[in-house]
Amino acid sequence: MRTILVVEDEMRIAGLVRDYLERAGFEVVVAGDGEAAVASARGMRPDVVILDLGLPGRDGLDVARELRRTSTVPIVMLTARGDEADRVAGLELGADDYVVKPFSPRELLARIRSVLRRTDQARAGGAEVLRAADVEIDLPRMRVTVGGRVVDLTPTEFQLLATLVREPGRVFTRAQLLDAVHGVAFESYERAVDAHVKNIRRKIEPTPGRPRYLLTVHGVGYRFADA
User: Fold this and answer.
1) pTM of the model
2) Residue that terminates a domain, selected from 96, 121, 146
3) Which strand (E) or helix (H) includes residue 123?
4) Residues 107, 143: one domain?
5) What is the pLDDT along the chain (227 residues), one digit of tens a residue?
6) Domain check: are 18 and 51 in the same one?
7) Nearest C-alpha neighbor of 48 from the set 24, 72, 70
8) For residue 121, what are the contacts with CB-CB under 8 A and spacing of at least 6?
9) Cα dihedral 6/203/185/3 (nearest 10)
10) 115 and 184 within one domain
């Protein structure tokens, strides 16, 4: 049974989400504030974190930042902040998906299943190890090394990079990359790809501002360097 950590200070919403996810077969733990969320995540190692941004005290963006220091657990933001800038900020901190309040529990469940599917697909199928330049991707272990240095990526970042490394030199549009990572939240939100690319570059590039591996094709999308 997979475990979901729900971080939500409104107990009515937390109870609704918990009951719905438990009926769907998940084990659910609820944390009502940022400090409890960080402690719970460290202690229980959940499969997915559902994270409200508008928490009292330590807000959700700070919790996401803290989780990303030590973990690549999938994070789905649950937020009343519908502004694009807030969504981009969460994605650039390493969130995998987002749901804007008010929301339907069915939609949230679809997002959770999607991010878990990306995690599973990243581990399964195709060649055991992908290599391009000095980037190596071990698919079953979800392990990325650059010049022998281990790089920690979130499941969405991993799937996105693996898609590009499988075909060095091929130009992918943002829409094609969205399709490759099966991001149901991102079907009409292609700026999410830019946020994930920014994160990947920060982790794998010697100089993120002058990328060597993950290259922009202006007006089209991205490609992985073929030399």
Assistant:
1) 0.71
2) 121
3) helix 105-123
4) no
5) 899 999 999 999 999 999 999 999 999 999 999 999 999 999 999 999 999 988 888 889 999 999 998 888 999 988 776 667 777 788 888 888 888 888 889 989 988 988 888 777 766 655 688 999 899 999 888 899 999 999 999 888 998 999 999 899 999 998 888 877 755 444 446 678 888 899 999 999 999 999 999 999 998 899 999 86
6) yes
7) 72
8) 159, 182
9) -30
10) no
Cβ neighbors of 15 (< 8 A, separation 6 or more) are 30
Q: What is the CATH number of the domain that holds 71?
A: 3.40.50.2300
Answer with the one of 100, 121, 142 that is the final residue of a domain. Answer: 121
Q: Which residue has the tokens 């998940």?
A: 26
What separation, in Å, do the N-terminal and C-terminal C-alpha atoms of the chain show? Answer: 44
The Cα 188–Cα 54 span in angstroms is: 24
Q: Note whether 59 and 19 are same-domain residues.
A: yes
Check which CATH number belongs to the domain holding 172 and give it.
Answer: 1.10.10.10
What CA–CA distance (Å, rounded) separates 53 from 117?
24
Shared-domain flag, residues 112 and 207: no
Q: How far is CA 70 from the centre of its chain?
A: 14
Task: Give counts: helices (H), strands (E), the chain.
Answer: 8, 12
